[in-house]
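Hi Y.,

Following your request, here is the sequence exactly as I used it, all 643 residues.
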Amino acid sequence: MSWGLPKLPGFSFEDVTKTNFHVPRKIDYVNGYPIVRCDGRAVGGSSMDADGSNYIDVSDALNFDPSLMYGRTKDDSIPIPKPHWVRFDKKFLTFKGHFVQEFPELTIRKIILIYYLEDDTITVVEPHIHNSGLMQGKLVKRSRLPKNDCGQFWHWKDFNVGMDFTVHGYAIHVSSCDEFTREFMTSQGVEVFDDEITDDVQPVRDYRRVEPNKINRKLSKHFLDDDGRVLQFDAIWDDSNVEHGEVRNYKILYSINDKTVSIKECHVKNGGRDPFPMLLRKTRIFKNWSERSVNSPIFGQERQSEDEEYYGEDDLLIGETINILGRDFLLCDCDDFTRRYYKNVLNIDQREPIRPVQPEKKILPMTVGPHIGIGDPDDTFMSCLSFHLKPPHKDVVQYNLYGNKNLRYLCEMISVHPEDAGRRFVLSYHLADGLIRIDELLADNSGLSGGRFSGPSKLPVPGCGFGTHYTPEMFYIGAIIIVKNHKLRIVSADLFVYNYMMENRDKFPSEIVENLRQYHLQCGNLKSESAQIVSGDIASMDGLLKETQDFRTDNWRPTELAAPLQAMESAQILPDSEASKVEDQPVVCLTGPATVAHTVQDQIDVSQQMDRNNVEEIPEDDMPNLTVTKRVSFKNVPENHDE
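Below is the corresponding structure, written out as tokens. Let me know if you'd prefer a different format.
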């Protein structure tokens, strides 16, 4: 290193042999204050240059000023005064005293007065005395007590030993205070008088414990022997002479061991009364309670009258009326134990039960109002049954059996406007909960988007009142249903619908089942029945052709439907009584009308002629019992073909 040279390039030379480059700390902390080290060591522990801070004279104020490093000293700050509620927090003055109570008898009651210095509030507490018979404890809650009518309040400077002050009409005399109170008031310049001697101040009232009466062994044995034995009577109280009065039923219970009476109310379901368990608790009842004086002992107090003044076992007889606290109770019946007790112990035969004539109550029929528009109609019905709204009951059995099964029908809209012509819908009836969903089929170039037409809900039947909805018994080919003021006609149904009807024939009218059966026969869905009809069940081919002609022309008329379906407009024809038989089903194999009757041989010739006109051939196994040269099917023949 070069000494005394400026630190410029060319004037400083590094020590190539130096390997320690640790930077020593310049400040030490002593008692939490930073102190500058004066050891004069540079990087690596080497001595510092002559121009370093190690050669600075500390006494030189121009070169070294400690205030530049540590800042100038600050004067001591003025202490912030604490508010009185902080200085006097949890500090209170305690005085002892007493006051005289003259009613109902002369009594001296000792108290403790506590004055809280933090907010100048006062509370008065009376120590508890065992068996005093007085409501003791906190007499005055913690609050500021008014001193006069001028808006002034009692302050700790107003209190002293030997003074009297008034609190809520009671004149309290202060007799002593504790040591903290005496020291605090003396420090504040208040002279506190000496404590008064209060040992001779005793309460006037005698709080001695009343000695119990001597036990009567005879009564004790009677009490233990008859313990739990109760005479039970059925009684009525007729209060119908007042407005809104009625005849009410009660149970009168007479305890044999202590000769007490209790009355229990007999509540009726939906009676509209609060379910109080007892009308009268267990007690002794005077016979002439209205003649008793005001000072006479009553319930629970010591009895000073004769036994005849109270109701006993001899007074409780069926047919008698007893007056209990102003109510006349008619004894109508008693239980078997009571009858045996009167017979064996008292030698009294109770009368036969009295059956009072109860006024007939009018049961008003429950009326269900219209749908309120919130939720489903079932929710409105449940709100009419109870004030506590509950969800409608779901049939769990139906959900387990038909959870994912639906009856599907194809419908077309009866158009009122020209643009509604040709609109077709799929109606799905959910068997589990009876919800109906209707979706519109998308048609090309119709201008309609299709999709959801009616969400899953129960569709009400117009004009049939609240709670009547569409069910599968009302759906058949040609039936008209009204959905959102639109008329839809059922034109087709799934084969599952017919199978479901056959499995549950007791749920559907026979006309509806026959209607679906003829439709699926005509569509060729029931091949087994078609072959049976053609093979053996048809008496003659002439009858088949005649029935076919009647079915395909206007000569055929539908029969009357069952009562639930008579009001519904039908657009699909139903078979008459004769054509509904199994042997008269001509619509399976023949779809074209026959103008004249033919013989069997003529029909076979016609079949051979039509076979040459691109008619689908039926295999031999489908029609085994019909002896013809060639069996054919007529399902591809146009409806208006010539014979």
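The longest strand covers residues 92-101.

Thanks again,
Q.
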